[in-house]
Structures are given as structure tokens and as C-alpha cells.
Amino acid sequence: MIKKLALLAAAAGMLVVPLAGTASAQTTLRQPAKAEQIAPGKLGSVVRYTVTNGHRDYGDTPVSSRTALNCGVINIGLPGNIYYGGEYAGQVEQQYNTCNGQASAHWQWAGGFQNSHPGAWVDVYIISYYGGQAGYGGAYTYTKDVSTATVDIHSANPDAWHAQAIVNGCGSWAKGTEHWYGGQDWDGPHSGGC
């Protein structure tokens, strides 16, 4: 019966842990260094990973066996706005790809600003104050959306990231929410411009 309960818990996506009354039960609660979980989307397959600072490290596990069925790109936190000469120019936000664990920044020009400032330029970054990779993108107002290259969120330690942008190199950077991928936002969005 105990084995059946453990298999049901694993199939539901919960960690398999020793049950009280079994030979492997622990008397003290602790976070396991290694765990096994049934991989979402791959019935019957087991994914092995370690947990470090609240993050799962899948090691050499193939991406296809650890991705969820409904993965995609999601927005993280709130966007930062830029005002250029008092006019709203657009906003920058952080995006996260739940399929591959990569982050990027996305800029979107305000339609009115695109029309009134043809040839304006934006520089966009996904960056961390704690080192790691940086992703860059830049474009004129002729392009509505501007995205950066993606970065591995674990290339910074701690893995806290924010999106930032500046128009025509003028004034201050707009910054989206600084998000720590351990599970919380460390700083809210900031408007920028000149």
C-alpha cells in the first residue's frame, strides 16, 4: 500500500519522500540533496536533480524530458516606462522562457511616439547586478517590438535580473522589476528618460 501511495504522489508531480513507518523514514525533517520526480509530459520517466539555493539543477538530463507540456514565454514583474521630452516613448519588461530557463528583455514603442519621432533609437538590455551574461537589442522606431538576446538566468549569482532601456542615449535608464529567480521581486520598476 505504501508503495502505491508513493507512486501516486510521484505521478501527481510531487517529490517522492520516505513515508513514516518505512525502513527509510527519517526522524528529522530535512531538505533532500537529491530528489526524483516524474517528469511532466513524460509519463513514467524519472528526472534526477539536485536542489541548490532553491533552484533545481538537472545536470545532464535532456531538456525534452524536463519541460512541461504548456511551456512558453511569460512576462516577469512590471515594466519600466520611458518619457522623452515629457512624451511617453514606450516600456521595457523582462521575459522568461519556461521551456529553456532563459530570460530576455522586451521593448515596445508607444504608437504615438513612433509617429512623432521617426528615427529615434532604443538600447535594450537584460542584465544582472551580480555578473553573468548580458543580452542586448537595439532598434529604430520603425520596429514596434525590440527583444534582446537571451541569457541563462543561472549565469549570475545570485540569479536576479532586470530589463532596462534608454532612448537616444538621453537621460536615465528605465528599468523593469528586478526579479530573483529564487522566488521574489527584489526591486520594483523605475521610469527613465530625459
Walk me through this protein's architecture:
- By secondary structure, the protein is mostly beta strands.
- Helix content is 8%, strand content 43%.
- It has 2 helices and 15 strands.
- The strands form 3 sheets. Strands 4, 5, 6, 9, 10 and 15 form a 6-stranded mixed beta sheet that branches.
- A hairpin with a 6-residue loop joins strand 11 (160-167) and strand 12 (174-175).
Please state the oligomeric state of the protein chains shown. single chain
What Rg is obtained from the alpha carbons, in whole angstroms?
A: 22 Å
How far apart lie the N and C ends? 68 Å
**Helix coverage percent of residues?**
under 10%
Strand content range = 35-45%
- Overall outline: globular
Question: What order do the helices and strands follow?
Answer: HEEEEEEHEEEEEEEEE
Number of DSSP strand runs? 15
Give the uncertain stretches in residue-range form: 1-68
Q: How many individual helices?
A: 2
Largest β-sheet summary: 6 strands, mixed
| SS class | mainly beta
What would the average pLDDT be, to the nearest integer?
Answer: 76
Layout of secondary structure:
Elements: H1 2-11, E1 34-38, E2 46-52, E3 55-57, E4 73-84, E5 87-97, E6 102-109, H2 111-116, E7 121-127, E8 135-140, E9 145-147, E10 151-152, E11 160-167, E12 174-175, E13 178-180, E14 184-187, E15 192-193
Parallel strand pairs: 4-15
Antiparallel strand pairs: 1-2, 2-3, 4-5, 5-6, 6-9, 6-10, 7-8, 7-11, 11-12, 11-13, 13-14
